[in-house]
What we know:
Distance between the termini: 100 Å
Strand content: under 5%
Largest sheet: 5 strands, mixed
GO biological process, one term: lipopolysaccharide biosynthetic process
GO molecular function: pentosyltransferase activity
Keywords: Cell membrane, Glycosyltransferase, Membrane, Transferase, Transmembrane, Transmembrane helix
Structural class: mainly alpha
Pfam families: PMT_2, YkcB_C
Order of helices and strands: HHHHHHHHHHHHHHHHHHHHEHEHEHEE
Number of strands: 5
Main location: membrane
Amino acid sequence: MAHAPVLDRSTTRPSPPPRRDPAWVRPALLALLVATGGLYLWQLSSSGYANSYYAAAIQAGSQSWKAWFFGALDAASSITVDKPPASLWLPGLLARVVGFNSWTLLIPQALEGVAAVGLLFAAVRRVAGPVAGLAAGALLALTPAAVLIFRFDNPDALLLLLVVAATYCVTRALEDGRTKWLALAGVALGFGFLTKSGQALLVLPALSLAYLALGPNGVWKRVRQLLLAGVTLVVSAGWWILAVLLWPAADRPYIGGSTDNNPLELAFGYNGLGRLFGGSGNMSGGGGGQNSSFGGSTGLQRMFSGEFGLEISWLLPAALVAIAALFWVTRSAPRTDRLRAAALVWGGSLLATGLTFSFMQGTIHPYYSVALAPAIAALVAIAGRELWVRNSAACHALLIAMVVATSAWGVHLLTTGGTPTVYVVVAIALGVAATLGLMTRWLAGGSVRRGLPALALVGVLAVAAPIADWGLRTANTPHTGSIPTAVSDSSSSSSSNAMGGGMGGGGTKPSGTKPSGTKASGTRPSGNPPSRSGSSSSGSSSSSSSSGSSSRPSGGGGGGTTSVSSRLAKALESTTTTWSAATVGAQNAASYELATGTSVIGIGGFSGSDDAPTLAQFKAWVKEGKITYFIASSGQGGGGGSSSVGTQITNWVKSNFTATTIGGTTVYDLTT
């Protein structure tokens, strides 16, 4: 007896999600979240302090509420990090409650990753059902860039969670037209702005256009709702900026990364237009659209090449096919069709963010590409499910194109990344098997049902196996240093790459350090060169001898870890002044802070070119007895050249105080 043909639903509106999922969905979701948590928490402390620049700020926030609120690098609040402080608040609170250590530093990011996976499941489920939701969550969890960032202390982890939360809220608004969902989306993006400034707004055009064009209410009501959402965004982002502007500048830290101690200039200059076009403290691209010190050549190829390709592009070809596929299958659907709305929300977000990253001239690092991961995972899962259940030649062809593109590109990346041959062979076999199976199903015209579950499994494995291999190996690798990368072999980020992005030097936890926010004994790591994964070559701390020299960067902007001898650490711990020391560059200061638990002034901020503190202010602090030591750098100051405050202060100290050596490091006692 012939089976009834599969219904072609290409012109019908997808039914709303069921009120009650099948019984297996909740256990499956719980298993996904537990597995994600295990992946992100596995040997988490092996990365030590990860990015010491942000780690020092979190330690400072655990010691001082003022430093916590402003995001200051030191507890005495001389200067902030070069990002808004939202990503520092949760780990700072946790460290204050249970003590500062590697776990309290990194656990918040891991939990943010689990939450992002759960929210992505919820958003996709409402459009394409629980199977697609679980697939999207799993693909996000395994994306190498996501595995990297959710095990690291950079702001991108919280930013990704907030962007997914905003997209979920817009998805709900597209269903029922309720204003509260749009308002909540505005709140999420507002706090995203307080996490990483303008990057949080890259999805705003797609979300706004999707609701304006496809929302369920009348057009003028949709406009009013979007305006209200804009107000909530501005309020959620602006309250902290307003507080900083109203706070007397003399009673708060200097806003690191800004040219005039202004949070607006930081947001829209250094972290805004400067990122897009270069300048404002960012490294500009060279001739011919080159920005080789950071992201390589600008252009459409950027997201597919080098470290960008290994971190994010595994499913990018399939996601691009998915956008076209979803718009094709909904070409005759009603205006408010949820599937078309999802294509615009996720596809628009992917294209807007990806094109911005591809052509921006300022500072960009490969791990920024994690911002593409939720959209890629959602598009692949939604389109894969929809093309599977529709029986038309176009849908069969598009599904085969997705599988072939993903498998072929995944094999290419595995080969490029030096993956063992056996894994490459398995990936090829899965891709060929899935392609042949899908072609057989197409030629059979939907009449073949036996073996479909097995075929679906092979197809999923063909798509997911390469990305899972790289994601799991990323999780098994410690990551420290200026620019973490989701790879696992040889050398990657050089110290020069740390300039201009607020990405501090390596942060391996000093041996012997107690897990608390108080002064810690022990020594800083020896500054081993980072591996391709961004980890130190040893992956562990190494103690300096009592007379050992300190491996120092040559000024404020360099990357790499500053080694702190035990003798120097004890000297700094024994001080009673507001700041135990001052040194040129925030990264250098961060290493001393993490080794001792004391406050150290990072003259010139991250790049060494911030005008903070001025020479006059520094002289006043010395006169008031607020600084004990000036720790010399091997170079002549920060990245600002002969006119930088680092150079000015260094020259003044050398002219007025006597140099001495503690543990192989040249210091000046400013109290004599």
